[in-house]
């Protein structure tokens, strides 16, 4: 039965400051691990807040409501030679942490000609900073913490003369450096006596995790025959992690790195095997020539997934099975082994975002960032219990993986990807749950999920538990993938943001209500679930704040929705949008303001805050021209920026 949201929306919008939960339930801060408590001020939702609908009463209330957006919007940056960062008036941004900066105390200084070897790179910041999270220390949460940062992939300038191919093979030293530049950095940060955030070096917490770091496999596929290789006959230990894009965290204080486009690192030269093996072909593993990214297989045999019957377990044919997972990392224990949690399912995962119920039940939401792929959630079988560290760690190894179906009437259903349900039987190619999880995309196909326009980051509203997902773009929509209500535009170059409310505010519910929060790229591009333009006074998006290709997405503690973009800013259709940017939206009024613009050629990504929301970190990937690195003088490098308000106030006010 559908709910009429209009009256509640009117009451909600009449409040001056932010969405107020009507349930009267206590906040969850007291339930969270102390290492998380400071950051979770208002950042995990409470049940009972209704979905933000339209209607006349809501329109009147919106007109009376004070905007959450307290900063002055800036214009797009259209200068083709722009090589800096511009932020809203009253704010400052400085480069904080760049590729090549020291992480470990004995790291050598980065060489401006990029001639560092792979052993040096293992001690320095990796390339292409992406998803990240701030973990506070409980004794000074607003002033001291660990910043954990993904390094998604590498660019040719990693080497002095670019990437080389000699007699059809990549030099092993170059490949090792590229592998070392992937992964994760953990760095300790704190305020100095002047109140400025600084990196702490040396620090016993600082750590580099890479494609060369041993990791454990856990969950349903640990030790399974489909995970065994000639170099790991146990099927329980993986060397490294790849292409970590966005991320997540747990309430017990661990980081979740998410392996996205891992398939681009592998090749299977056997055309018959590639065609028959869904775990390869459904994920786009290359079948001829070099692997799509770097040709690592010419120097490191484990990335050649061609079956070899002369070797145990077919050689490295199962190596791709060991990527595409959630990787749990304990930032407070630098000696701990990262763990790949196979219960989450395997696909090109963008993120793993937590929604925590008051009773300890959890859901972790993810997008599969490929045209026409799906939105998922994983619901652990057990419940989170504050302080029960050991039992909490085991919660991620059993549960139910779901995939979303968005129905035309604005309702939706989570379809269980569970052996024996929704057509996932041996007769249909799924002998057991291991095959369901390993081939989650194929299972979602069979279950009847809705193909989406490149689902990327997910964000959960801090008070209502409403869930938002960015659908970045899809130029194949209307062709290979038909139109539907959640993906309503053909040749979709600009993307949209879809949101939903779980039934009863329960993160583990299997039914939900959804609508389109906004259609990017349109002058006043906000429409409802039926594709109808919403009333102008519910939009607030002015012509000058148009943007394209929403990608990164996160809520701050007050309920502001921060949106990061990723498009080719040199493409003619995008030139009117300017360079990539960071915007902020009010979920009630749908007003959007541009907060920051980046240098030409970059992607704006990664976002996190200090617990008091007076410091924000974002990432600038692959900047061009002369964008300064953290030393202020060397050539452009992917970097983390620190943003503060000049008067010391809360970001966004």
Automatic annotation (TrEMBL):
PROSITE patterns noted in UniProt: TAT
Alphabetical list of SUPFAM superfamilies matching this protein: NHL repeat (SSF101898)
Short name of any one Pfam family annotated for the protein: PhoX
Top-level taxon of origin: Bacteria
Stored InterPro entries: 6-blade_b-propeller_TolB-like, PhoX, TAT_signal
Gene3D superfamilies (alphabetical): TolB, C-terminal domain
Protein name as catalogued: Tat pathway signal protein
Species of provenance: Stutzerimonas stutzeri (Pseudomonas stutzeri)
């Amino acid at each position: 039965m559908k709910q009429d949201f209009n009256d509640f929306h009117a009451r909600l919008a009449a409040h001056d400051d932010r969405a107020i939960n009507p349930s009267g339930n206590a906040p969850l801060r007291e339930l969270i691990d102390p290492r998380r408590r400071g950051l979770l001020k208002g950042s995990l939702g409470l049940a009972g807040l209704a979905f933000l609908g339209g209607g006349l009463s809501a329109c009147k209330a919106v007109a009376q409501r004070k905007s959450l957006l307290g900063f002055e919007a800036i214009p797009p940056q259209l200068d083709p030679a722009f090589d800096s960062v511009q932020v809203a008036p009253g704010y400052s941004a400085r480069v904080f942490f760049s590729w090549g900066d020291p992480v470990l105390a004995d790291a050598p200084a980065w060489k401006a000609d990029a001639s560092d070897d792979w052993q040096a790179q293992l001690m320095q910041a990796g390339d292409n900073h992406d998803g990240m999270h701030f973990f506070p220390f409980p004794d000074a949460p607003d002033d001291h913490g660990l910043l954990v940062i993904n390094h998604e992939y590498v660019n040719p300038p990693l080497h002095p003369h670019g990437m080389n191919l000699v007699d059809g093979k990549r030099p092993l030293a170059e490949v090792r450096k590229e592998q070392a530049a992937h992964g994760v950095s953990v760095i300790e940060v704190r305020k100095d006596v002047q109140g400025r955030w600084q990196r702490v070096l040396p620090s016993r917490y600082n750590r580099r995790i890479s494609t060369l770091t041993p990791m454990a496999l856990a969950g349903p596929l640990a030790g399974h025959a489909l995970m065994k290789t000639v170099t790991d006959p146990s099927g329980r230990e993986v060397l490294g992690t790849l292409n970590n894009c966005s991320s997540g965290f747990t309430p017990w204080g661990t980081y979740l790195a998410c392996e996205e486009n891992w398939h681009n690192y592998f090749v299977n030269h056997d055309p018959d095997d590639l065609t028959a093996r869904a775990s390869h072909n459904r994920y786009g593993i290359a079948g001829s020539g070099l692997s799509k990214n770097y040709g690592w297989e010419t120097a490191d045999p484990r990335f050649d997934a061609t079956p070899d019957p002369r070797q145990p377990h077919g050689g490295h044919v199962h190596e791709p099975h060991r990527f595409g997972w959630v990787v749990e990392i304990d930032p407070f224990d630098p000696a701990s082994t990262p763990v790949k949690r196979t219960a989450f399912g395997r696909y090109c995962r963008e993120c793993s975002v937590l929604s925590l119920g008051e009773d300890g039940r959890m859901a972790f939401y993810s997008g599969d960032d490929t045209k026409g792929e799906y939105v998922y959630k994983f619901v652990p079988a057990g419940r989170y219990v504050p302080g029960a560290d050991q039992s909490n760690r085991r919660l991620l190894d059993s549960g139910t993986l779901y995939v979303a179906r968005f129905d035309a009437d604005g309702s939706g259903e989570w379809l269980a990807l569970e052996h024996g349900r929704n057509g996932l039987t041996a007769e249909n190619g799924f002998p057991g749950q291991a095959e369901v999880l390993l081939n989650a995309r194929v299972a979602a196909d069979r279950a009847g999920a809705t193909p989406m326009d490149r689902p990327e980051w997910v964000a959960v509203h801090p008070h209502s538990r409403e869930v938002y997902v960015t659908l970045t773009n899809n130029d194949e929509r209307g062709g290979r993938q038909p139109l539907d209500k959640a993906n309503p535009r053909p040749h979709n170059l600009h993307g949209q943001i879809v949101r939903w409310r779980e039934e009863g505010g329960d993160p583990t519910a299997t039914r939900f209500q959804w609508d389109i929060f906004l259609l990017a790229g349109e002058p006043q591009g906000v429409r409802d679930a039926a594709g109808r333009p919403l009333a102008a006074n519910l939009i607030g998006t002015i012509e000058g704040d148009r943007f394209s290709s929403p990608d990164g997405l996160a809520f701050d503690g007050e309920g502001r929705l921060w949106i990061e973009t990723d498009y080719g800013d040199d493409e003619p259709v995008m030139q009117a949008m300017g360079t990539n940017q960071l915007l902020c939206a009010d979920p009630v009024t749908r007003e959007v303001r541009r907060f920051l613009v980046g240098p030409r050629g970059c992607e704006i990504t990664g976002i996190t805050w200090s617990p008091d929301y007076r410091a924000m970190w974002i990432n600038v990937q692959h900047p061009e021209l002369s964008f300064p690195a953290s030393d202020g003088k060397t050539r452009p490098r992917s970097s983390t920026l620190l943003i503060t308000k000049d008067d010391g106030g809360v970001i966004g006010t």
